[in-house]
Structure formats: structure tokens, C-alpha cells
TrEMBL record:
Its main location: membrane. Keywords: ATP-binding, Cell membrane, Hydrolase, Membrane, Nucleotide-binding, Translocase, Transport. This is Nod factor export ATP-binding protein I. Residues 9-234 form the ABC transporter domain. It holds the Pfam family ABC_tran. Coiled coil: none annotated. Gene3D superfamilies: P-loop containing nucleotide triphosphate hydrolases. Its EC number is 3.6.3.-. One of its GO terms (cellular component) is plasma membrane. It is found in: Cell membrane.
Length: 306
């Protein structure tokens, strides 16, 4: 991928250990210009450590990074000047005003964007004079995103940008990410929300235990499960024997049962008979097509949880 103008970022065999724990264990992937690339996985999968290496916060033990056309072992100061970083916790001084926070971050760069321009982009113009402590959770996240964009970066890292936000605030962040992509920015995102990954991503890299276990577009990953249909219903503490007797391949997590079938009609008929014979109600039953969480479940045998 060297000198490939379509690849802004690539890593090869990246490794980082803490004692006997292999936080990042041979990770390789490439990110194309003007796309949203998402690292997906549970806590402890190695997503944040991978991002911290690429952001220059930590050094890798082994591996190679290619960024902005240069191959390096560690991220340089010049590379940092071309990237924007939104961390999980902004940690802004609560008694600074919004415009003061952005002005402070602007002072770190030779050619920052005008504060007023960034305020408009993150829709905080009416909060410019407000103290950080008076902002809502969603407004604080938009401010953190504004701080990450003040230097007009080519590459933007967003580490779980919508965790803990209400649906409206989450969609506000999504809209900003879509605008950035439309402007040709390259975005590396981590998230615990499958619907977020499906809505925003051009490519998804699923990690678990420090390794890449799947990589591709959301459509390609879900297509890998074939044309099967999923039937879900609530069933608490279903016994292994009852689960095994279901008409099809079934997984249960103690609260929800997921039945996978290539023949929906036959599966529904069998499921209704199973329910009557055992006296187990089919509460909140849903019929749907596979999604990214199903891909994760098929690969790891467990659901993604924050």
C-alpha cells in the first residue's frame, strides 16, 4: 500500500502488550481517504489501545504504521498536526466558556480554523458564551468534536463519541460525522453501538482479544451469514434442553433467544408448536434480517456489550 493515494492510513502486524496481556496482538488494516472506518468490539478488545498508538499517545511494541504516505514505527509530531482526536472524556475546565475552549485549542496550531466557523459546524453558536459546566452531555460532546476539528485535520479519530448520549444527541453527532465525510475527511471511529456502525461506516473491523476477527463493509459482513432469517423472542433462563429442542439453530443469552433459519415459514410453524407443547410464551417476538451484532455473535458466540 505504499504510495497508494487512496490509502491515508495502514497498520501492519501492530502489537502492544502489558505484561502477559496482549492488548493488541498482530493487528493489520488499511483506511481509504474520505471514508468512515470503524473499529468494533467489546471492552478489552484492543480498540482504544490501537487508536492511542495511531494518535501518538502510546508506542507500539512491534509493527509498522503508514500515515499520510510515510512509513514509521511511531507517529511523528508533524502527523499529529494533521489529525484531530476526540477522546472518550473531554475533561474541559468547567469554568471556561465554549468560545474560550476553542480559542485555547486553536492556539496550539499555526493555522487554525476560525472559532466562529467551528462553532457553526458543531451547532454551538448560541452557546459560545456559556460555561462548560452548563452544557448538556450532547453539547459537551459537540464541543469536544469542535476542539478536534479546530486544526482542519485530514484524519479524525473518534473514540466512542456517542456513549451515554440520548438518541437525539447521538443523531446530532452522526450528522456532523456525515458532513465531515462529505468534506473528504477520513474518520476512524470506535463504538459499542451496532446501529451506529451500520449507519456511518464504509468499512468495519471487528476486534476481539486484541485480534482482528472480521473486516469488510457492513453489507459484506452481514452477507457472510447467507440468506438466513432471524427470529428473536424473550425467554428468561431457558434450559439447555428446551433451547436444543427449538426448530433450528438457536442461541440464548439468558434473556433473549435468537433462532436462525433458512426457511421462515417452517421455522415459525415449528416454533409455534414448540411454544404450545412446552407452555413457553413467545414474548416480544421479532422477525428480521442479520445485522452486525449477528456477525459478532456468529464469530464469538456472545453478543456485543458495552
Amino acid at each position: 500500500m505504499a504510495n497508494d493515494p487512496q490509502m491515508l492510513l495502514a497498520v501492519r502486524d501492530l502489537k502492544k502488550s502489558y505484561g502477559t496481556v496482549h492488548a493488541v496482538d498482530g493487528v493489520s488494516f488499511a483506511v481509504r481517504v474520505g471514508t468512515v472506518f470503524t473499529l468494533l468490539g467489546p471492552n478489552g478488545a484492543g480498540k482504544t489501545t490501537t487508536l492511542e498508538i495511531l494518535e501518538g499517545i502510546r508506542d507500539a511494541d512491534e509493527g509498522e504504521i503508514e500515515m499520510f504516505g510515510a512509513r514509521v514505527r511511531r507517529v511523528t509530531a508533524g502527523m499529529k498536526g494533521r489529525m484531530g482526536v476526540l477522546l472518550q472524556e473531554g475533561g474541559f475546565e468547567p469554568y471556561l466558556r465554549v468560545r474560550e475552549v476553542l480559542a485555547l485549542f486553536a492556539s496550539f496550531f499555526d493555522r487554525p480554523r476560525p472559532v466562529a466557523e467551528v462553532l457553526a459546524e458543531i451547532a454551538l453558536e448560541d452557546k459560545a458564551g456559556s460555561l462548560v459546566r452548563h452544557l448538556s452531555g450532547g453539547q459537551k460532546q459537540r464541543l469536544a468534536l469542535g476542539a478536534a476539528l479546530i486544526n482542519d485535520p485530514d484524519l479524525v479519530f473518534l473514540d466512542e463519541p456517542t456513549t451515554g448520549l440520548d438518541p437525539q444527541a447521538r443523531h446530532n453527532i452522526w450528522a456532523i460525522v456525515e458532513r465531515l465525510k462529505g468534506e473528504g475527511k477520513t474518520i476512524v471511529l470506535t463504538t459499542h453501538y451496532m446501529e451506529e456502525a451500520e449507519a456511518l461506516s464504509d468499512e468495519v473491523c471487528i476486534m476481539d482479544h486484541g485480534r482482528v476477527i472480521a473486516h469488510g463493509s457492513p453489507r459484506d459482513l452481514t452477507s457472510s451469514l447467507g440468506q438466513e432469517t432471524l427470529i428473536e423472542f424473550d425467554a428468561f433462563d431457558l434450559s439447555p434442553e428446551a433451547l436444543a429442542s427449538l426448530p433450528g439453530e438457536a442461541h440464548g443469552d439468558g434473556t433473549t433467544v435468537t433462532l436462525t433459519t433458512p426457511d421462515l415459514v417452517a421455522a415459525l410453524e415449528g416454533l409455534l408448536s414448540w411454544s404450545r407443547e412446552r407452555g413457553i410464551p413467545l414474548r416480544n417476538m421479532v422477525v428480521r434480517q442479520p445485522n452486525l451484532e449477528d456477525v459478532f455473535l456468529s464469530l464469538t458466540g456472545r453478543r456485543l456489550r458495552a
